[in-house]
Each structure stands twice: as C-alpha cells, then as structure tokens.
Amino acid sequence: MWMLRLRRFVRVMSKGGWMLLWALRDARTPLLVKLGTVAVLAYVISPVDLVPDLPILGWFDDAALLMVAIPFLLDRLPAAVRTQAQAASERSKLRRWFGGAGLGGRA
Questions:
Q1: Closest Cα to residue 6, out of 75, 103, 77?
Q2: 26 CB burial (10 A radius; 0-12, 13-18, 19+)
Q3: Secondary structure percentages of the chain, helix, strand, coil, to 5
Q4: Structural contact between residues 11 and 63, judged by C-beta atoms closer than 8 angstroms
Q5: What H or E segment, with its residue span, contains residue 68?
Q6: Among 93, 76, 90, 81, which residue's Cα sits nearest to residue 37?
Q7: Over the Cα atoms of the chain, what is R_g?
Q8: Other CB atoms within 10 A of residue 93 CB
Q9: pLDDT value for 83
Q10: pLDDT surpasses 50 at 103
Q11: Between vectors from CA 54 to CA 107 and to CA 42, what angle results, nearest 5°?
Q12: Over 80: is that where the pLDDT of 65 sits?
C-alpha cells in the first residue's frame, strides 16, 4: 500500500517539475517563479546541503523541499501559462523518457 502512495507521489512531483521547467521558457511566467524554480533546482543538484547526501537520510531535505516548493510555485503560475506548460510537458519526449522517475513510466 505504501509503495502505491509513493509511486503516486513521485508521479505528481514529476509532472509538476516538468511543468515548471516548461514554464521557465514562457515570457509570461513571473520572475519570482522563475527564480524560485532555478533556486530549487540548484539546491537539489548542488552537493552542498543542510543534511549531507548520505544514502536515504540525506535525501529527506531534498524531498521535503520539493514537496513544498513544487506546489507553491505551480500555484503562482498564471492560469494560461500553467495550462500551456501542462500540455507541453505531456507531449514532451523527455517526459516520456524520464516521466515516472523510473517507477512505472508515464506520469
């Protein structure tokens, strides 16, 4: 049961992440949303973390940040940009390749 919840969570976060990446390219996206997306992406990729990236334990701060930041940033997108980013992310070849983060294909 908890694996199904985890899989659904990864799908939702993956879909929101791809939408934010597509929204970065749109000129109608507010500057603060663009800066927030870049800052979150930089933190997750960066080797400098609040908690060192030890297996499993060190990933909790990254996961917590993503759980808060992705919905927060998506809520601040204008409706037209959000709709267009959702459509673009769903037909993206990259999303098909990496869509479910390895947990079941498409999200």
A1: 103
A2: middle
A3: 70, 0, 30
A4: no
A5: helix 60-75
A6: 76
A7: 14
A8: 7
A9: 92
A10: no
A11: 55
A12: yes
Cβ neighbours of residue 59 under 8 Å, at least 6 residues apart? 53
**Predicted local distance difference test score (pLDDT) of residue 44:** 82
Write the single-letter amino acid at 46.
Answer: S
Reported as a single tens digit per residue, the pLDDT across 80-97 is 999 998 888 877 766 556
**Widest CA span of the chain, in angstroms?**
42
Q: Band of the pLDDT at 107, cuts 50, 70, 90? A: very low
How far apart are alpha carbons 105 and 107 in whole angstroms? 7
Residue 28 DSSP code: T
Which has more pLDDT, 22 or 96? 22
End-to-end CA distance of the chain: 18
Closest listed residue to residue 16, CA positions, set 56, 61, 59, 76: 76
> How long is the chain?
107
